[in-house]
TrEMBL record:
The species this protein was found in: Azospirillum griseum
Extent of Low complexity compositional bias: 243-252
SMART domains: FCD (SM00895), HTH_GNTR (SM00345)
Domain HTH gntR-type, first and last residues per copy: 8-75
Entry superkingdom: Bacteria
Name of the protein: GntR family transcriptional regulator
Segments for region (Disordered): 230-260
Record bears the keyword Transcription regulation: yes
Keyword set, alphabetical order: DNA-binding, Transcription, Transcription regulation
Amino acid sequence: MKVDREIKTLRVLALEKLRDAIVGLQFKPGERLVERALVERLGVSRTVVREALRHLETEGLVETIPHQGPIVAHLSVSAAAQIYELRSILEAAAARACALMAAEEDFARLSAALDSIRSGYADHDIKRILDATTLFYEIMFLSGGKTVAWGIVQTLNARITHLRAMTISSAGRSTKGPSEMEAILTALRARDADRAERACLSHVTQAGDIALRILRGDIAIDQSMTGRVTTLPADAPDPGPASAPASAPASAARRRGRRV
């Protein structure tokens, strides 16, 4: 049997939109995630919302507080520091391998991803920046044969992306971030493994320092970089009877295309 194209159900779409909203800082750490409000805003049933929240809890983006319910998870300074420490080890190794093993077309794909990052900054489109940044690193890891290392990164991807959203929303990152990644790409294209490793370590160190300062409350984020998550498409496949709309307002919300 042949599948012509991917069809996403409401469950998957709701999960993606909620994840994007949290990662994109539309919901702040500690903010309550009220089921009824999410049902209205997403236009799906309580069952779908609950499943999405449970999944996001496994990703570390949501936590459930007794007698209060689900909230956006707080990421501690200690946990963030450990994530950046792990990133520095894995990304530096991936950069070295990429410089030595990648094909020329891989460098072209890295350049295209970097162009998308720059255009995302220009348009204040945080989702485009995050998606393109993830793609940049995926290409770097996989073109260097670091498939196991990329798998490890993927297990932390939601929290990495959440931290990344904070750093790219800080003052000055619209120029410094892409410049640091350009330095990585330049070293990769020159097939200079040592320089690529150093550039990668420098970039992760700079980003990590900003993230930790944000978590400590020393610096603020640029609110113009938030709030770019789109709505669920009206023609998304229904996941089945168990997820039928819980109420008339929820169905009406889907028709109106309310935003998260």
